[in-house]
Amino acid sequence: MKEHSEPKSVSRRNLLIGSATAGIAAAMSGVVPRAAQAAGNDEQITIFSWETYHDDDWLAEYSKKTGVKVNVIRSGSVDEMFAKLRSGAVVADVIYLDVGSVSRLIDAKLIAPLEVSKITNASNIAPGIEWQKRCTQRGKVWAVPYNWGTQPLMFNTKVVTPRPTSWQTLWDKKYVGKVNLPDDAYITFPMVALAVGAKDPYHLTDAEFNKCIEALRDLRPQLRTIARGFDDATSLYASGDAELGYCQNISTVFDLQKQGKPFDYAFPREGTPLWIDCAILTPKGAGRKPVYDFINEGLTPTWQARFIKRSTNNGILTAAAASAAGVPQDVIAKTNIASQEQPGFWSKMSVLQTPESMDRRLEIWNAFKAGTL
To answer: Of 19, 154, 162, 251, which is most buried with the most CB atoms under 10 A?
Structure first.
């Protein structure tokens, strides 16, 4: 097995570019010095986000309309974002991070609860997301969704037959050397846990950890490569270096189809990991009207439609609302926006959560990659 590395861009779909690359991206994203942030006023806010979430031209337009300058810092991974917030390397008013990270952000005293009454456009969030339920911890609401996505099993329809219905397909000896995984313990370990039948893939018992370790040992010969991000995975599948694997974002599948490659995706019967990225306040941003105004703007149908069309992410709208806001049907078809309204969709999903021990998972994952597990 080799580790493949051809990262082309930093995005929510491309989580695994190194911190040096992310630092360069941040330096080119209008980041103001920390001293300037501290001395800022109500006409300036700083957000910590992902590529494709808040494009520069959108922010320039927003600043022209409101008079509020928005500085954006873009991250390369969930763990990088957490580390930079905890170290103080980044000081922001609002961060865009998955709901599964909320618990550890609270424990680290890095975030502040939301005043829900100030986020009036939350009414545009599709009901199936059940956002207040998912974003409430310890009796308070800490986040409001901005985007979400699934991480299913993807496969070459001409190579992988019959159509797979289980994660166990990744372990099928017919596909030795043809499987691909993203290099990210946070998002990949839950899939392995689901595959071995763990009762709760985010709170494993010692016995379940042992099953995961054994499963990873058996899976390693199946892999020829580990992808370092969305673009890298797309190139691996396109070149034939992988025929099936754990899909970091379904846009990979549609990118391959656009190239004439026969790929599709499936939601395995054991469950499919799903992430929900949210706007989350820091103590610095708490109570600031310009911050709430910006969060609200990102939840309008107009903003969301532009976001969905440009990035083919799911956003937070229903299919009807997305269509009414101008998202073409062929774009909606390349997302899970319509799928979320199908009976039983959410019951098949496993929303990412803070695991029982990220350090333990990382240790196992690194040993798996090194072949010392």
So the answer is: 154
pLDDT band at residue 96 using 50, 70 and 90 as cut-offs? very high
User: What span, in angstroms and rounded, lies between the C-alpha atoms of 33 and 336?
Assistant: 39
pLDDT computed for residue 36 by the predictor: 38
The CATH number of the domain holding residue 324 is: 3.40.190.10
Closest CA to 99 of 59, 130, 139: 130
End-to-end CA distance of the chain: 14
DSSP string, 281-294: E-TTTTT-HHHHHH
The pLDDT value recorded for residue 1 is: 67
- Same structural domain for residues 157 and 137? no
CA angle 186, 190, 192 (to 5 degrees): 120
Residue 208 in 3-state DSSP?
helix
Q: How far apart are CA 174 and CA 119, in angstroms?
A: 51
E strands, the chain, are: 2-3, 44-49, 69-74, 94-98, 136-137, 140-141, 144-150, 153-156, 179-182, 223-227, 244-246, 263-266, 272-281, 349-351
Whether the Cβ atoms of residue 84 and residue 75 lie closer than 8 Å to each other: yes
- Domain residues for 365? 150-273+352-370
Which residue shows structure tokens 């039948």?
197
